[in-house]
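Researcher: Good morning. I'm working through a list of sequences from a screen, and I'd like to move beyond sequence-only analysis. For each chain I'm collecting a predicted structure so we can compare shapes side by side. This is the next one on the list. No need for commentary yet; just the structure.
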Amino acid sequence: MVSVPPRAESAFALVRDQTGRFFYGRAADQPTEERAKMEALADCHRSSGRTCSIISSFNMGCFAFAAAPRGPAGYAAGGRDVDAEQKAMHICSQRPGGHQCALRVSFCDSTSEQMQTILSNLKRAREVLAKGNTFGTPCSLSGKRIVASNLLLDVVGKNVLFHENQGGRGMALMFGQTLDLTAEKSQLRYDGVPLPRHPGRIETAQGSVAFDGGELRLLLESVFRTRGYTQQQSDGMPHHLPDNVPLMVGTAFYRVEISNCSSCILREFTIRTQGYVGPEFTKSSPNSRCTIEDIKR
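Model: Good morning. Structure tokens for this chain:
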């Protein structure tokens, strides 16, 4: 069981009138679960004039409600908005009359929205990195080794072997592609010791590398998400969070200026981590020394 600090609480309330119409109310980012329920009930009452019922309360996640006009309905919580929406639509569509189901409500707590923004930024960074811009003198890095602070790359054709901290097991990348490094990352060892595994969460990792003749750019990312994650509440009772909630994101970005494939400067090296707990951590080392040498066979 994992214990974490209190989160913003959210709730969703619902009522249906005699004609089959749905009225609902929602609340997010409240200090307590009780306050979230009160706000959701009040919001529902304002729109319907009726006594509503709480159908869901949650934190560290998203919620979605789907319904057909005066027909079936379905709702679900999820780690991401897309997860909750797909589940709600699936539940609704499986019921009689479900072919008319449509998404009515979808929202997340602010912490989850913050993480969604970070994940969206990572996606855009991968797209920019993969496109590249042709400049500088075209040359080939094949058969070369690039060595800089916290960076060692061996290049053979379009294949790149990346070594963290200039040692240990390498991770295989390929120019112009985003590759899944989850398996490689799980096998990394530091000082001969495997990296620790954390209960209740899983890690996925990806890597991208691009070279346009004048600049080499490399992006590594790790995303930790919940799986079987249990939160200790203030009253001592366990609270099971939905799977796939992003808990932490870490990125490492390298930008190396290449001159005629014979000399280089590490223009940017930035490590950034962001999670639910604590502020963003950033470490940057620009304009570091760099060397290019032939791979010894």
